[in-house]
Amino acid sequence: MASWFGRNTEIRIDDCDGKGACTGACPFAESMDFAPHQLMRLLQIGDDSCVLRSNAAWICTDCMACNAACPSKVDVGGVFAHLRRISIQEDATLPPDVEMVRLLHDAFVEELKGYGRVNDVHVAMAYKARSLDFTDLGLAFQLFSRGRLRPFAARKTRGFREWFASIEEEGG
Predict the structure, then answer these.
(1) Domains plus CATH for the chain?
(2) Which end of the chain is more exposed for a tag (fewer CB within 10 A), N or C?
């Protein structure tokens, strides 16, 4: 997979020195099965199956603290974003808790593709439908009755679908 990054992105995995500055900056590293610097090392040695089964890319919030801390200027956040896409494309088996994150990710991206913006209620409804988790449905009704949820459709943003399609064609 390291060679894939070399062929398909400008991210230079081999520039990672493994000292862990990215891990030190990551607010969620403790929740990951492999810290960012460990995942980068797994990529360098070619342990692709372990990388794709890892929860690290899915726990990453794209805050980019890792990128800011990296003395080698490796785009660790970009690596995680690509790993999420590859995981989806290869239909990788994920742990159950990470599968829920993936379902939320899918709902978010679907909303973004459809409207060019995100309506939180639409994303939540799509996630709930995918996950079949309706345990907090009563709370949703309370929030709606108080005017705190607005489930109305967002206006579509012109040209966004074409832009999104061009990114997908480029492998993004």
Answers:
(1) 2-89 (1.10.1060.10), 96-169 (no CATH)
(2) C
End-to-end Cα, the chain, rounded Å: 16
For residue 130, count CB atoms less than 10 angstroms from its CB and return exposed for 0-12, middle for 13-18, buried for 19 or more: middle
Whole-structure pTM value: 0.73
- The C-alpha angle 66, 72, 73, rounded to 5 degrees, equals 55
Angle separating helix axes 96-115 and 120-131, nearest 10 degrees: 140
Tokens read off for 70: 């990296």
**Which value, in Å, is the radius of gyration of the alpha carbons in the chain?**
18
